[in-house]
Amino acid sequence: MTPFPGNAKRGDPAEILVSLRRNGQYRGLVVRQIPGGPLVVLAGNHTMQALQAHGAGRCQYADHEKNPCAMCADGSWDGTTARCEIILCDDDEARRINLADNRLAELGGYDNDALAELLSYLDGDYEGTGYTDSDVMALITPPDLDDLDGSNDAGPDPEPAEKPSLADRFLIPPFDVLDARQGWWRTRKKQWLSLGMRSEVGRGDNLVFEGMAKADPKYYDKKRVVEQALGRPLTAAEFEADHYIRPDDAVASGTSVFDPVVCELAYRWFCPPGGKILDPFAGGSVRGIVAGILGRPYHGNDLRPEQVESNREQRDEFAGRRMLAADPSWSIGDSADWVKTLEPNSADMVFTCPPYYDLEEYSDDPKDLSAMSYDAFDEVYERIIAGVAKALKPNRFAVFVTGDARDNRGALHDLRGSTIRAAVKAGLVYASGAVLVTAVGTSAIMAGRTFTGTRGLARTHQDVLVFCKGNRSEAAKACGDVDVHLPDGVEDAFADVDESDELAEAA
Ligand SMILES: C[S@@+](CC[C@H](N)C(=O)[O-])C[C@H]1O[C@@H](n2cnc3c(N)ncnc32)[C@H](O)[C@@H]1O
């Protein structure tokens, strides 16, 4: 075989060899058979060079016996031959094929988002693709992060950034670590809460600790934990002044106020504007109020009448202040029954936060999932997920915020896994799994002791699981561009928080 005479392309045989060793020769060379003459390579000239460089007979690379490259491993490479597609053509056609093969690939372009997604599946191992770590970084780094060290600041009149950053476009960069400890997040959360959202029945004013013991079901657990750590009893006043972490600070967990920033991101990213949201474990009012403010009609169902009553009061308060662009609603009952009443293919999003097994018991109602055994929980949970999946329209997203629970023998129970299994069984596709990094809270006090005693790692994360019914691209299209703007009245209320840190803390 001979190379094409006069080939104008200058390829990169070394890089092709890396690909050959990783991927094998996945495509034949296109070779012209000149009757009675030589075999001329029209397409794949640099691949031929790479094959030659690989070496005949014996792989020159690595430890051939233990770790053969893909070329050697598939047995098709004997060191002297290449897989080819032989064609017959005249000289003119041969030149055109050679030119076209080199040129046509160059004429195409890239959808950079699709490219970044495809590369992300490789988990950082780009060998054999032609991409390097820095290519990928350049692809995913917003322009405003390119120059963190200021090294491009030399010019007196810097060019304005051409593209908005990922944060400009999506509020925060859409990576699968969502860090609620970061400054932007914490400020945003305080701003949302400053609007006056309360989630828990009986909590009353967030600033007032009196009554906390009643309102926070974990109050005495928390107090006991601190007392054990300090090795002495504490008065309520002492505990509340120095050690008590208000449920507001424990992001998105238990009976705490569900993190409104998680709601905001979930709705803006995964729910079409004006889309109808279903929540089978409604808990407090936050998911409904934030949805209403962002113009998405929300319906939540919860077993506890007093919780739903309190949510409705909150809704009326916000409606009175004309802050709701859509009306949230709640119903009372067992969601295992409620899902049977839902119209199939009617909702634009499912967004929920189930009980984290028995981490907190919401009631002693035998239908309350948090009062069930782990197996019973899984069985009812699966039915509820199947029900909401059926009610979801095709090409739409479902988002579950979950966390694991430890049983009294110390074993973790995997709610994330149960959720994924149930959702997949219900016909949903598991699309993204993010870690929500949350405030350290009381775990800081116990982390050393727990680790020393059991090597248990203090949990400071929850899971945000994104599923899709149908096609993800179609679902993304239905959601449209992410709107990052706040409704006017809300923006004004937020601004107050910016002006005063104290007010922010109070919120
Ligand atoms: C983790 S909580 C939601 C709390 C959430 N973090 C909040 O405050 O927004 C789960 C909720 O599921 C509810 N629940 C438990 N079992 C249920 C069932 N079978 N049907 C409906 N709701 C149920 C509980 O009453 C509780 O409010």
From TrEMBL:
SUPFAM superfamilies: S-adenosyl-L-methionine-dependent methyltransferases. It comes from the Bacteria. CDD domains: ParB_N_Srx (cd16387). Gene3D superfamilies: Vaccinia Virus protein VP39. Residues 142-165 are annotated as: Disordered. This is Uncharacterized protein.
